[in-house]
Amino acid sequence: MSDHGHDGSQHGSGRPDTPSPRSEIGGPAGGTPEDYRRSTAALRRRVLHLSNELRQATRRADEATDLNRERICSLKSHELMCTNQGREIGRYRAEVNRLREERDTLQAFLESDRVMGMDPPSAAPEISALETQIADLNRDLDRRLGEIRHLQAHIDDLTQDRGNLESTIHHLASEMSQAGGEILDLQQANRDLDRSREDAESTLSATEESLRRTRSELDRVEAELLLSRSDRTDRGSSGPDLQPQPADPQPTGPTQADLDQVVRDRDTLRDQTRARDAEILSAQQTLRSTSPSPSRPQKKRSVPVEVDDGSMEEEDASEFDLGGGSTGGRSPSADQTSFPPSKDVDSSQPSGEVIEVRSGSGAEEEEEEENAEVADDLYEAQTLMGISQFRSEARRRDHASPQCRSVGGSGGSPGGSDGSNSDAGSGDQGNGSGPTGGSGLANPPPGRQPLRITFEKSRSFGH
Fold first, then answer.
1. What share of the chain is helix, strand, coil (3-state, %, to 5)?
2. pLDDT tens readout for residues 321-333
């Protein structure tokens, strides 16, 4: 039993100490999301390993406790047995002493009789029986003393085993406390990582909401521009005013300050949109690195395409005539403006048709971003042109002379009143005799079709 106890104590205390993971709990300071993800996986593996060790240590401690309890019970039983044997030995000793006293009394009586000259009586049978009984009691006493010495040695072994088991229990308890502290630290680190991920998700949600509001504002401004242009066109295409009106000042084109303001607004909105896109991309990369990323569905992007065979130089010459050139002091309407197709857009598509650009995850991501940038640039350019042409037409209509309007209305053909239908492709109906049609819109140069600008944005934003 003592050897077993020593083996158990050596097994409990001789286990190699595992390195403390406290240096791994904090994770890499200022690391990337991938480092945080690897640190989280390592911490989880460490928690599982420590949990298994804790269960094994608990099981060993329970076994040692059971063995110690059994040995303590055996020790108590042996101690009780020793006590009983001691009491019996004391009784035997008292009996031996009594018998010895009787023997001494008889011997003294015999000696006194011998001194007095009397013949010694024959040995009484009682004395022989007493001597025999005394010899038996002495042998029994020696045997019991041997048993007591053996029990005392066994009690000493049990006491030593109990000390070894107590030291093993203390060692296992300290290991359990250390493992519990490490598990608590790892759980706290996991909670910190979860909070960091939740903060990243909230930041991403706020960024997406801000981007959505910005794009909603852009769409609202675009709708207001389209409605205002439609109202201006309707008022300009109404019946000519035949009443004499005082002469208005000479028509003036859009000033450079107006164009600069439009460009600044456009650049500001573009910078805000790109900043929001960058923030959303960064937050999404953080989320994908800290949590299992599901398979991303394919996204559809549609780019409005208009057929145009002109160049940007010709449009600058015919549409941004700030000094009142060959169009009779009027710049063409925003409905007659278009752009050459981008290099990423198929120019063989019919006018107004939407081309869908599909992009998936992996190797097509770069091409998808390039197509998105091309579509954004095309849309921004169309918006800028629409705003500029709208302001130019508004100023020219506000400052146009009523006499000029009446002359233009009478000199044109019946199609002059249809000049506002340039969106429907009826630009060749306004064949007036003057430099402008009935509505004041300039005719396209010979050999060119009227240009159209379409404010469409069917590309879905967001990820």
1. 70, 5, 30
2. 434 444 444 444 4
Q: Does domain 2-194 have CATH number 1.10.287.1490?
A: yes
Q: Cα–chain-centroid distance for residue 72? A: 55
* Closest residue by Cα to residue 253 from 439, 395, 437: 395
Terminal CA-to-CA distance of the chain, rounded, Å?
71
Q: Which residues lie below 8 Å from residue 282, measured CB to CB, with a gap of 6+?
A: none
- Are 330 and 251 contacting, i.e. CB atoms less than 8 angstroms apart? yes
According to DSSP, the residues that pair with 301 across neighbouring strands are 357
The whole-angstrom distance between residue 309's C-alpha and the CA centroid of its chain comes to 50
How many CB atoms lie under 10 A from the CB of residue 414? 10
CA 177 vs. chain centroid, Å, equals: 31
- Side-chain-side CA neighbours of 167 within 13 Å: the count stands at 15
pTM of the model: 0.28
CA nearest 254: which of 451, 387, 422? 387
Closest to 399 in 3D by CA, of 200, 238, 245, 179: 245
Over residues 347-374, the pLDDT tens digits come to 444 444 434 444 445 557 777 777 777 7
Domain ranges of the chain: 2-194, 299-358+401-409+434-463
Question: In which residue are the tokens 């390039």 written?
Answer: 370
The closest alpha carbon to 200, from 210, 208, 188, 211, belongs to 208
Q: Do residues 47 and 186 touch, judged by C-beta distance below 8 A? A: yes
- Per-residue HEC secondary structure of 407-451 comes to HHHHHCCHHHHHHHHHHHCCHHHCCCCCCECCCCCECCCCCCCCC
Q: Which two tokens stand for residue 285?
A: 């990369």
Taking each helix axis from N to C terminus, what angle separates 33-115 and 256-290, rounded to the nearest 10 degrees? 30
Q: What is the DSSP string of 172-189?
A: HHHHHHHHHHHHHHHHHH
301: nearest Cα among 361, 220, 347, 369: 369
- Alpha-carbon distance of 61 to 176, in angstroms, equals 10
